[in-house]
Design brief:
The complex is a heterodimer. Chain A starts with a helix and ends with a helix. Chain A contains 2 helices and no strands. Chain A is 96% helix and 0% strand. By secondary structure, chain A is an all-alpha fold. Chain B is 71% helix and 6% strand. Chain B is built from 6 helices and 4 strands, in the order ββαααββααα. In chain B, the strands form 2 sheets. Chain B has a two-stranded antiparallel sheet. In chain B, strands 3-4 form a two-stranded antiparallel ribbon. In chain B, α1 (17-37) packs across α3, α3 (76-95) runs antiparallel to α6 (193-233) and α4 (113-142) packs parallel to α6. Chain B is mainly α. The termini of chain B are far apart. Classes of the chains: A mainly alpha, B mainly alpha. Chains A and B meet through α1 of A and β2, α1, α2, α3 and α4 of B. Chain A: Its main location: membrane. Chain A: Component of the F(0) channel, it forms part of the peripheral stalk, linking F(1) to F(0). Chain A: It is found in: Cell membrane; Endomembrane system.
């Protein structure tokens, strides 16, 4: 039995354990612990982020619903307003047209009366002129007696009727 | 590997240089391996750091298997060093065996019962120490008389058999493996090309099998050591 070997074994094993503990075990287990902590923290963070996102989504959904209702209301109001405005415009246009038509008819009647009056005067003058000319050229009353009579009679009818 | 060693004495204590060299070389190899694997650890493990972390998880698993509670965490480093040290010790004699003038200068230190007894002693002394630390001296002594007082002699015998079986199992496996390696080598050089070729092939096969045995024995040694420690540390 070589007892010295046991001493060497114990000493080298103790030194080996110390060195490995300091140079290999320590840093690596520390890193493993850090990683475990980080994973833990990351999972917590992800959980929180997921919850927040869900809350935001719910809020957004509710807001979207509200805004849809708002939009419908706005459109309805606009439609009503538009309809009312259209009615008013049409009414105004009708009134305007009626006024214009009445005015135009009045004007036309006035014009017609004026034109007739002036034409009556013109016809009388022209007839007189024609008669003077005709009478001046050929004074054979016996030839034209019947025509003149007719004419005068026609003129008298035309004047008398108005 | 002949059973003759270049013994020498220092301060009246006998040394076997074959054991000493093998122990020191495997201790240095163990340290270099673990130190190299642990260089620049990163939060995202790459390459060799994965290997070391797998190794640590493996030995931590052995410890957790015996001591599931929090008391196991203090044995993680011990289990890792013990496992890698015994593993390298078992394998080193498969790669190098040096005989000079009929004396063996280098082979697996675990092929010597003195060394395996020493390893078992380290484990068991640690288990007793941590048993006292965990349960107090009274609780530690009570452990010998549990579950009933008349089992005290059997418990004492068990302590002894644990010590012997733990060490001799490792010794027997490694020693037998190396003796067989030597025998196959002698067969290979017994003359004739047929013997050389068949001996060469057999040597390869047996070396591969011995690597397997050495790994299993390192695992068993650490596992049983942790089981014995758990009996001391965990109070029923």
């Amino acid at each position: 039995m070589s007892i010295g070997d046991t001493l060497i074994l114990i000493i080298s094993f103790a030194v080996l354990t110390l060195l490995v503990g300091h140079f290999a075990w320590g840093p690596v287990t520390k890193m493993m612990a850090t990683r475990a902590d980080k994973i833990d923290a990351d999972i917590d963070y992800a959980e929180n982020a997921r919850k927040e996102a869900a809350e935001l989504a719910a809020k957004r959904q509710a807001e979207l619903k509200n805004s849809q209702a708002d939009a419908v209301k706005i459109v309805n109001t606009a439609k009503e307003n538009g309809e009312k405005q259209r009615q008013e415009l049409v009414q105004a246009a009708h009134n305007e047209v009626a006024t214009l038509k009445a005015n135009a008819q009045q004007d036309i009647a006035q014009e017609r009366t004026d034109a007739l009056n002036s034409a009556k005067n013109d016809v009388a003058e022209i007839s007189l002129a024609i008669a003077t000319k005709i009478l001046g050229k050929e004074l054979k009353a016996e030839d034209q007696q019947a025509l003149i009579d007719d004419y005068i009679k026609g003129l008298g009818d035309a004047n008398g009727s108005h | 590997m002949k059973e003759s060693f270049p013994y020498f004495e220092l301060f009246g204590v006998k040394f076997n240089p074959a054991n000493d060299i093998a122990i020191i070389v495997s201790a240095i190899l163990t340290f270099c391996l673990l130190y190299w694997l642990a260089r620049k650890p990163q939060l995202r493990p790459h390459g060799k750091q994965n290997v070391l972390e797998y190794l640590i998880e493996f030995t931590n698993g052995i410890v957790k298997g015996a001591m599931p509670g929090s008391e196991g965490s203090q044995f993680g480093l011990f289990a890792l060093v013990l496992f890698v040290f015994i593993f390298i010790n078992n394998q080193i004699g498969l790669i190098f065996q040096v005989d000079v003038n009929g004396d063996t200068w280098f082979r697996s230190a675990t092929a010597d019962p003195v060394i395996t007894l020493g390893l078992a002693m380290i484990v068991l002394v640690m288990s007793h120490f941590f048993g006292v630390a965990a349960n107090g001296f009274k609780g530690y002594l009570k452990g010998f008389a549990s579950p009933v007082a008349f089992l005290l002699p059997i418990n004492l015998i068990e302590e002894f058999t644990n010590f012997v079986t733990l060490s001799l199992r490792l010794y027997g496996n490694i020693y037998a493996g190396e003796v067989l390696l030597l025998l196959i080598r002698q067969l290979a050089f017994s003359g004739g090309p047929l013997a050389l070729v068949s001996g060469f092939l057999l040597e390869i096969i047996w070396q591969g099998f011995s690597v397997f045995i050495g790994s299993i024995q390192a695992y068993i040694f650490v596992t049983l050591g942790m089981v014995y420690t758990s009996h001391k540390v965990i109070s029923e």
